[in-house]
């Protein structure tokens, strides 16, 4: 068997087995990452979804309820562990992400004028 053939089969050299070991030893991020003042991504909480700091309430859950017509007061009554400022921050983050994703920020060049 030639040297070239043995490498294709993973025997010796830098074959697939050595690559697999390198990938297996790479650790995923395990540290919480703050997103603003009231939001956090923590791999140990809610499978790493964006949540409100100090809670297990996913931001997406609150935004979905608000999109279905729930008011801020209803949200805060059902999740008393949330702060009004945190929900406002989540709404602003979602709005910013939407504008950025749509490319509208580059086209508009200014803030909206309606209240």
Question: Layout of helices and strands, plus pairs?
Answer:
Blueprint: H1 3-8, H2 16-25, E1 33-35, E2 39-41, E3 50-52, H3 59-67, H4 72-78, H5 84-102, H6 104-108
Antiparallel strand pairs: 1-2, 2-3
General description of the model:
The protein is mainly alpha-helical and 115 residues long. It has 2 domains: 1-29, no CATH class; 33-108, Arc Repressor Mutant, subunit A, CATH 1.10.10. It is built from 6 helices and 3 strands, in the order H-H-E-E-E-H-H-H-H. Strand 2 (39-41) and strand 3 form a beta hairpin. The termini are far apart. Mean pLDDT is 78; it is low at 3-27.
**Residue runs with pLDDT of under 50 for 5 or more positions:** 3-27
Strands ordered across the widest β-sheet: 1-2-3
Count structural domains.
2
Percentage of residues in strands: 5-15%
- Helix/strand structural class: mainly alpha
CATH superfamily of the largest domain: Winged helix-like DNA-binding domain superfamily/Winged helix DNA-binding domain
CATH level-3 fold name of the largest domain: Arc Repressor Mutant, subunit A
Rg (CA only): 23 Å
**Major sheet, described briefly?**
3 strands, antiparallel
**SSE sequence, one letter per element:** HHEEEHHHH
* Helix proportion: 40-55%
Question: Helix count?
Answer: 6
- What gross morphology would you assign? globular
Roughly what is the average pLDDT, rounded to an integer?
A: 78
Tell me which oligomeric state these chains represent. single chain
Which CATH class of the largest domain applies here? Mainly Alpha
The CATH architecture assignment of the largest domain turns out to be Orthogonal Bundle
């Amino acid at each position: 068997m030639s040297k070239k053939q043995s490498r294709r089969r993973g025997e010796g050299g830098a074959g697939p087995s050595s690559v697999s070991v390198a990938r297996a030893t790479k650790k995923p991020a395990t540290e919480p990452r703050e997103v603003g003042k009231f939001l956090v991504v923590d791999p140990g909480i809610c499978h790493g979804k964006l949540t409100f700091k100090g809670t297990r309430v996913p931001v997406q859950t609150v935004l979905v309820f608000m999109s279905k017509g729930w008011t801020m007061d209803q949200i805060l009554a059902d999740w008393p562990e949330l702060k009004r400022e945190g929900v406002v921050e989540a709404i602003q983050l979602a709005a910013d992400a939407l504008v950025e994703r749509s490319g509208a920020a580059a086209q508009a060049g200014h803030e909206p004028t309606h209240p």
